Amino acid sequence: AQKVTQAQTEISVVEKEDVTLDCVYETRDTTYYLFWYKQPPSGELVFLIRRNSFDEQNEISGRYSWNFQKSTSSFNFTITASQVVDSAVYFCALRVNFNKFYFGSGTKLNVKP
Amino acid sequence: GAVVSQHPSRVICKSGTSVKIECRSLDFQATTMFWYRQFPKQSLMLMATSNEGSKATYEQGVEKDKFLINHASLTLSTLTVTSAHPEDSSFYICSASGTTSGANVLTFGAGSRLTVL
Fold first, then answer.
1. What is d(CA B46, CA B63) in angstroms, rounded to the nearest whole number?
2. Could you give the C-alpha distances from A1 to A22, A29, A48, in angstroms and in order?
């Protein structure tokens, strides 16, 4: 069975603080993809990153960075120097066969000025 | 490239009426489309998977007679909520999978917010 767990329901930080959003996944498939999406209040899903199961290299994109560790089945997302515009719900997702997505429950990030 | 258009973005209807939501792939052929439902402050749950020209495959617990899915062409899938009731109020999101310029793509629509009065 596939499962994605985002234990943090809601996080509040003050602008310029760093924040890490946790994601733990479960799958028996050896080939899979992991994603992070941002969902602002308008509702659309904004793609942030995709990682395949064979690529454990961490990635940095501007203020965003991702730490993929197969040994702990985690794919954590860090925002450095957070900004008010980062406030949104963030979803971690797992994709296996047939393009099905399994979404975590989401973490609501509140960045206060 | 790989744009998915979902329409309408918002719809309000009376209880008992049917509502149709369209999902179009604008610049690629979508061999597979997925429909998700999201209740307020909750995650996205897959409702069904549809392949062009075939009947949709529904997830456990989703009423196929309630949520009619049609994928008649490679660029259009529709979700019809039949005899809608207030508990059907939700945010519905589609995603489309296909190929463009030789690359696999999977893109989400912007979602449709349904309110049933």
1. 13
2. 20, 9, 25
Nearest residue to A89 (alpha-carbon basis) of A27, A42, A31: A42
Contact A27, A2 (CB under 8 A): yes
- Contact (CB<8Å) B32/A98: yes
Reported residue count of chain B is: 117
In total, the C-beta contacts within 8 angstroms joining chain A to chain B are 43
| Candidate from A37, A91, A101 with C-beta closest to B46 | A101
**Residues B48-94 pLDDT 10s:** 999 888 889 999 999 999 999 999 899 999 999 999 999 999 999 99
Length of chain A counted residue by residue? 113
Question: How many of the other CB atoms lie within 10 Å of CB of B2?
Answer: 19
Between CA B69 and CA B35 the distance in angstroms is 9
Averaged pLDDT of chain B: 91
Query: CA nearest B18: which of B81, B65, B63?
Result: B81
Phi-psi region of A97 (alpha: psi -120 to 50; beta: other; left: phi over 0): beta
Long-range contacts of A55-61, Cβ-Cβ distance < 8 Å, separation of 24 or more: none
Question: CB burial class (10 A; 0-12, 13-18, 19+) of residue A103?
Answer: buried
Q: Give the model confidence (pLDDT) of A47-78 as tens digits.
A: 899 898 988 888 888 999 999 999 999 999 99
